[in-house]
Amino acid sequence: MAVADSSTRTQAQAQAQPQPRVRPLPAPQTFPAFVVLALVVIGAAGLLPLRLNTNATTTSFSITGLEEERSFWQAKTIQLQNDIATQAALSRIDREAKERFGMIPASGDQQLLITPEKGAQGFDPSLDHVPSRYLPAAPEEIQPSSPWWRSVLDIIPRP
Question: CB-based contacts of 86: which residues, under 8 Å, 6+ apart?
Answer without folding.
Answer: 92
